[in-house]
Amino acid sequence: MPYFPYGPLEIAHLQDCDPSLGAVIDRIGPIQREVQPELFTALVHSIVSQQISNAAAATVWRRLGALLGAWTPERLANVTAADLRACGLPRRKVDGIQHLSRQVMQGDLDLSVLPTLPDAAVVQTLSALPGIGAWTAEMLLIFALGRPDVVSRGDQAIQRGMRRLYGLEILSHAQFTRYRERYRPYGTVASFYLWALASER
Fold first, then answer.
1. Residues above pLDDT 90, as percent of the chain
2. How far apart are CA 64 and CA 78, in angstroms?
3. Which residues 6+ apart lie within 8 Å of 46 measured at CB?
4. Residue 35: burial class (beta carbons within 10 Å; 0-12, 13-18, 19+)
5. Which of 30, 63, 111, 117 is 20 to 30 A (C-alpha) from 200?
6. Beta bridge mates, 34
7. What is the pLDDT of residue 70?
8. DSSP class per residue in 170-196
9. Predicted pLDDT of residue 150
10. Which of 189, 143, 199 is nearest to 21 (CA)?
């Protein structure tokens, strides 16, 4: 799969606008994050990954791949809920994935329109579906649509990374907003480094 595209321009901007983040970027070095251009597959992956660790999500994803053979709405809509739950998915995620699959199959949700929409409209469109909230839509913005300026307030690792970066016990909404604005228009690259910082021991 391809990687999220960024380079010296984005790095220089973040280093200039935030010396603390710049020091982390220098220490960690380049970060490559894969993107999944196939929107349906990427959206299902975002649902699978909700509120679990990357390792747990990878395990469930492998099991689903072995079960399905092909990441298509038809396959996911027709496999039994029991089989999906046996892969490690809770009922809420099973219901959300199968509802999404039926919406795409029936033409009620046209994923091909999403690349033409601004970020907020993508989040609004997807959040109207059961089992999909702002975080899931924001992960699609990053890892499928390649949007350059996404920093998810609902992502606990992003918040942990910010607290570590700025030496905070608690991150207020106002503080998050101030830092988030500082990173514009390259918030997604900042997110990569905040995730990396959050995962450090």
1. 94
2. 13
3. 132, 136, 137, 139, 140, 143
4. middle
5. 63
6. 3
7. 87
8. S--HHHHHHHHHHHTT-HHHHHHHHHH
9. 98
10. 189
Q: What is the pLDDT of residue 138?
A: 97
| Number of neighbouring beta carbons within 10 Å of residue 41 | 14
Q: Could you give the CA distance from residue 132 to residue 100 in angstroms, rounded to a whole number?
A: 9
| pLDDT for the residue 77 | 87
- The whole-chain average pLDDT of the chain stands at 95
Stretches where the chain sits below pLDDT 70 are none
Tell me, rounded to whole angstroms, the distance of Cα 63 from its chain centroid: 20
Provide the token pair at 66. Answer: 């072995």
pLDDT tens-digit readout, 85-108: 999 999 999 999 999 999 999 999
DSSP string, 31-100: ---B----HHHHHHHHHHTTTS-HHHHHHHHHHHHHHHSS--HHHHHHS-HHHHHHTT--HHHHHHHHHH
To the nearest 10°, report the CA torsion of 43, 48, 50, 51. -170
